[in-house]
Amino acid sequence: MKKVLITGGAGFIAHHIIAHIIKNTDWEIVTIDRLDISGNLNRLNEILNQFSDKDKKRLKIVFHDLKAEINSQIESAIGIPDIILHLAAASHVDRSISFPMEFVQDNVVGTVNLLDFARRQKKLEKFVYFSTDEIFGNAPEGVSYSEYDRYNSTNPYSASKASAEEFCVAYENTYKLPIYITHTMNVFGERQHPEKFIPMTIQRVRDQQKVLIHANEEKTQAGSRHYIHAQDVADGLMFILNLNNYVHRGDFGNAKCPKFNLVGPEEIDNLTLAQIIAKVQKKELIYELIDNHTSRPGHDLRYSLSPKLLKSLGWEPKIKLSKRIEEVVEWSLKNKRWLS
Ligand SMILES: NC(=O)c1ccc[n+]([C@@H]2O[C@H](COP(=O)([O-])OP(=O)(O)OC[C@H]3O[C@@H](n4cnc5c(N)ncnc54)[C@H](O)[C@@H]3O)[C@@H](O)[C@H]2O)c1
Fold first, then answer.
1. What is the CATH number of the domain that holds 245?
2. Do 239 and 328 share a domain, yes or no?
3. Whose CA is nearest to atom 34 of ligand 1?
4. What gap in Å lies between CA 258 and CA 239, rounded to an integer?
5. Is there a single domain that holds both residue 159 and residue 93?
């Protein structure tokens, strides 16, 4: 039986991955988290309720802040992992603009502490680092970045993620760690932090409050993303973990360091998205397009990644975006505690 260490398990994406792994494998899971403003153990409590007592015991939670090195006590609480999935990160972009050093500590120092722990592991098969579309910066119309395109960080959050990604590459080159990297587009789903765009829009439409939508300077075009549901992220991740014979053929120094873009099924602008959310609720959408550069320095109008690599290997999200959005709206209205 494999043991997987997942960092940031009380966070939004990792708790979906934990549910997916409990449901689809017999693996043991250890998660470490320090429970910051976005970490919430109630997420894990809710998903564990779907499982038998035997399955519930497959998850162990270890309290640890990755800013500190993983000492021998924490190491023995974790045990010997076969796989490490590194999701813990300070993830609030606006906060990174006010407190950039916190993001260096959590995302860069935290990642290097985990890489040092990984370096001591004798039977580690894969170390997956969860990076983001934001490291590539704004994508002009018609451009979708591929896995090995250049970084272009436009805010301290994305700089900290890109920097940690480079440390992962360096640890494969220097210490031969089995590094895998995912670049994930904007994720949504059940139990997301209520300040994020989709839960906030669901709540504002429900209460008939104005929804502010980031747009270009002329306020004629809303920003767009390829949103991906957290369950599709978990499914894509399992596909990557099962790619045992995959040989990356790119020119990338000595490190193979496979990188994969995890991209939602279609691009959607935030106004269309808000309109779908209002339609599902059968309510009017009250909205205003706002100039994103004035309201949020470092905010990019459009992110876009190419899904071609994973598609060519046989993976893409199976469920249409509009269906996923509909399900999340209906779930959120029934589970009001996850809205503001
Ligand atoms: N949400 C997205 O749209 C998105 C897109 C691409 C990539 N990502 C990446 O995926 C990962 C998870 O994102 P999320 O939205 O679930 O974030 P989240 O903020 O919901 O969860 C992050 C978790 O990490 C924990 N954490 C933070 N710093 C820590 C530290 N120093 N030590 C231990 N635990 C710590 C937090 O307590 C929290 O539980 C992050 O690495 C993020 O950069 C997210």
1. 3.40.50.720
2. no
3. 33
4. 13
5. yes
Written as one string, the DSSP assignment of 124-144 is: --EEEEEEEGGGG----TT--
Residue ranges making up the domain that contains 64: 3-187+226-262
Q: Which of 6, 7, 13 to mutate to test the pocket of ligand 1 (most atoms within 8 A of CB)?
A: 13
Task: Return the axis-axis angle of helices 321-334 and 197-206, rounded to nearest 10°.
Answer: 60
227 is catalytic: no
**In this structure, are 241 and 332 located in the same domain?**
no
Whole-number Å distance, alpha carbon 12 to ligand 1 midpoint, is 7
Assess whether 216 and 153 both reside in one domain. Answer: no
DSSP 254-267: S----EEEE--SS-
* 219 and 76 within one domain: no
Q: Does the CB atom of residue 107 touch ligand 1 within 6 A? A: no
> What pLDDT is recorded for position 248?
72
Amino acid at 12: F
Q: Of 69, 85, 87, 157, which is best to mutate to test ligand 1, by the most ligand atoms within 8 angstroms of its C-beta?
A: 87
- Whether 163 is in the pocket of ligand 1, judged by its Cβ within 6 Å, is no
Judge whether 308 lies within some domain: no
Question: CA angle, 90 as apex, 126 and 261 as ends, to 5°?
Answer: 45
Whole-prediction pTM: 0.97
Q: Identify the active-site residue in 129, 145, 157, 227.
A: 157
Instruction: Tell how far the Cα of 146 is from the centroid of ligand 1, in angstroms.
Output: 23
pLDDT at 42: 96
Which mean pLDDT values do the consecutive 10-residue runs of the chain (340 residues) have? 97 98 98 93 96 98 98 98 98 94 98 98 96 96 95 96 97 94 97 96 98 91 94 98 78 73 95 98 96 71 95 96 97 96
Number of folded domains that form the chain: 2
The answer to whether residues 159 and 62 belong to one domain is: yes
Nearest CA to ligand 1 atom 36: 39
Last residue of a domain, one of 235, 262, 289: 262
Question: Do the Cβ atoms of 146 and 309 come closer than 8 Å?
Answer: yes
Residue pointed to by tokens 């940031």: 8
Which of 262, 283, 308 is the last residue in one of the domains? 262
